[in-house]
Amino acid sequence: xxxxxxxxxxxxxxxxxxxxxxxxxxxxxxxxxxxxxxxxxxxxxxxxxxxxxxxxxxxxxxxxxxxxxxxxxxxxxxxxxxxxxxxxxxxxxxxxxxxxxxxxxxxxxxxxxxxxxxxxxxxxxxxxxxxxxxxxxxxxxxxxxxxxxxxxxxxxxxxxxxxxxx
Length: 166
Prior knowledge:
Elements: H1 18-42, E1 48-52, H2 62-76, E2 80-83, H3 89-99, E3 104-109, E4 123-127, H4 130-139, E5 141-146, H5 151-165
């Protein structure tokens, strides 16, 4: 099967305008800036473990307590803990690491809804592009913990499995 990437339909004047094309060209520099910031801030956190999980699980849920406990144990064992930096199990991961001996790292993403930065981060980076954020999750990690979650968690797990396999 072959997939072709066709240009936008001609009836959309904005999609083919020079302003749109110029804006798209400059995104590479935004992505490059996110890589530079991520590399500079995370190069010293070795070893680290990335923890993935739902943004929608409340602090009263048993998975929240479990994630916090796992993260605290990893932190006390000398591993920096990296999460998505948002609410739910990401917050639990950061909270456990924040209470431990090693750094708590949040890789936040700018979204129109749902995502907000949790307060348990020693190192916090905010990304505009999922691509850059995913690279930072895997670049410095020695291990991964996947807790229950939704499509985002499944996407992150599939990315990790693909990279491990290849």
